[in-house]
User: Fold these one by one.
Assistant:
Number 1:
Amino acid sequence: MTIEKILLGFSPKAENILPALKKVNAGFGYIDEEKAEKIAAYFSVPISQLYETATFYDLINTKKQPALTIKVCFSTHCALKDAKKIIVEIENVLHVKLGDENNPKFRLGKMSCVGRCGEGPVVMVNNKVYERVTVVMVRGMLEEYL
């Protein structure tokens, strides 16, 4: 599938920018500068506006992602439910630090609310959602990917 084919599925109206960004991100894994320029041109918006939208949302990547990307919800509810302890355990298991973008194998980051507060803490591993995660669950959850 090409970016052009994806974009043709959307009317070039402002309200379709976010759905198009999500679809391109899902299809390619991230939106690099070349793709961003094509999307901005299609919707007739400045590239700065496109990046403003893309970087606002945690689920849209503007950089190529490593093989394993882990995001821990750090909204108020999840933070109160031991999200910090879960991050520390993931750091210990994978020998990676939160926010380190130089690790070629793993990326660990925080994300804002994903709307599943009743099921928190929430962890996403390569876009697979895990709910009610505990420190004890972390090692088993990650072994599936290692």
Number 2:
Amino acid sequence: MSHDTKLIDLFDRLARVAGNDRTAQGLNPVQWEALRFFARANRFSRNPSGLRQYLGVTKGTVSQSIIVLEKKGLLKKVPDSRDRRGVEVRLTAAGRKLLVDDPLNRWREDLAVLSAAQRKSLEATLEHLLRAALQHRERQPFGFCRDCVHFARDEASGAPHFCALLEVPLSDEDSQLICREQAPG
């Protein structure tokens, strides 16, 4: 067995283990990913189109997932203040509470067996691999505002930061959220 084959097998098995954890609380994996996305997405990405791009799924899948999560009281749609035709999707208090019991949180315990240096190395490796996979599939990477080439830290016209691409002030909280416009710095 080649080393690459072994790595691919390990990724596949880890994905299956994670997948088995994702059918909790009456939600399917896409619905869990939608909740996680809306919890971590910034105001420019927190909409059905942003979720579709992030997950790489159809409009129908996103639409149906949002409808189900709205009916369960976990999400709500509000008019987009920047675009009257659009909507912003937000987590409700029940949605935020459910994420506390996210089945993927079990992975924190699994990762605890690694040293800090091993976790940092694994994170860098997985980020690199994910970026390559997304690039080969011509999908947007999404990433944290603070790691973007357009992010200006402690900018005079910011709050305290600034996005040079969208020309808007960014708070410290904004800088820690993922954005569809992110370009790695």
